[in-house]
# Entry
Amino acid sequence: MKKIMMIAGEPSGDLHASNLALELKRNSPGIEIIGTGGDKMRAAGVELLFDLKDLAVTGLLDVIRQIFKLKRIQSSLLSRLKDQKIDLIILVDYPDFNLRFARKAKKSGVPVIYYISPQIWAWRKGRIKIIKKYVTKMYVIFKFEEELYKKAGVDVEFVGHPLLDIIGSQSHNVSAKPPVGTTSQDKTIALLPGSRNRLVATLLPIMLKTAVQIHKKSPFVKFIISKSPSVKQGIYDKNLERYSLPVNLIENKTYDLINASDFVITISGTSTLETAILRKPMAIVYKLPIIEYIIARPLLRLKNIGLVNIVAGREIVSEFIQFRAQPQKIADYALRLLSDEPRYEAIKKDLEGVKSMLQPSGASRAAALSILKFL
# Structure
């Protein structure tokens, strides 16, 4: 029986790794997969050695605080690599941990596959040298990434973006409204503050203050918040009790929430692409602790940080990053866009263009079929 070690360390990685694991098992039923991840990987039949909560880190300072625990996890995985005769290693995103692991795992002689590239095009481009040296093959989900790796001499394959299949597999009624008491004349704004405790604690207050400003000028607007099961309920409760707003907190229905909204206020990250695929105009909000921002800012290579804008190659939706993450500015942008139908429709058309750039569909299956050739 062939055995694979698969390592993911974040909720998005757990999602994409679980779909890849399902395709691997579907096309090679006798295969065994062990590794790190969350509930989705567990449900896909992966034997978890460590859970997401064991690997959860957010930002540079958190990495420093958790470094000894992460080293212990790495040592344990390397021991398993030797003891259990692993045939293949698949690393899924989570670059700070996975690239260090690849460096040591490569010495074992086991092929190292990387699925979903670190964002070398945004910052720390030097990591591409590490990837070339220690990664057997890279599978990327953006076409422009394939070109970067080919130029660097890395064995790479573009498989399309897995979100196309994940979102496409679910049923969405664009005209549907969630149970928030809206009417056909009301506007609904979805708030997506993320899936990590610290991010939600930082960004949800900004989003709620924005909602207050919007509600003052447009009292019929309703708000829905996407609740992540990985975030403590108390973080939401503490913030919501501060404001008197027509708002509902809904868990595990992110795509339905986006689809039922007229506008989305989202953190930077995968959620911008999810929103783009569902063709909903949005504002991107992100803020780091000041020390982390000072450290990270010189390393950033791009004008925009929102994935939807990066894929488009230009800013099609506004970003409110760090010092621009001001509730009044975000509220003014949202209200202006919601009252300007030609501009609103133009952005929806631009988002359709972004969706087309993420093609082809079937990323998980394409990656699985190619990966199985290494066994």
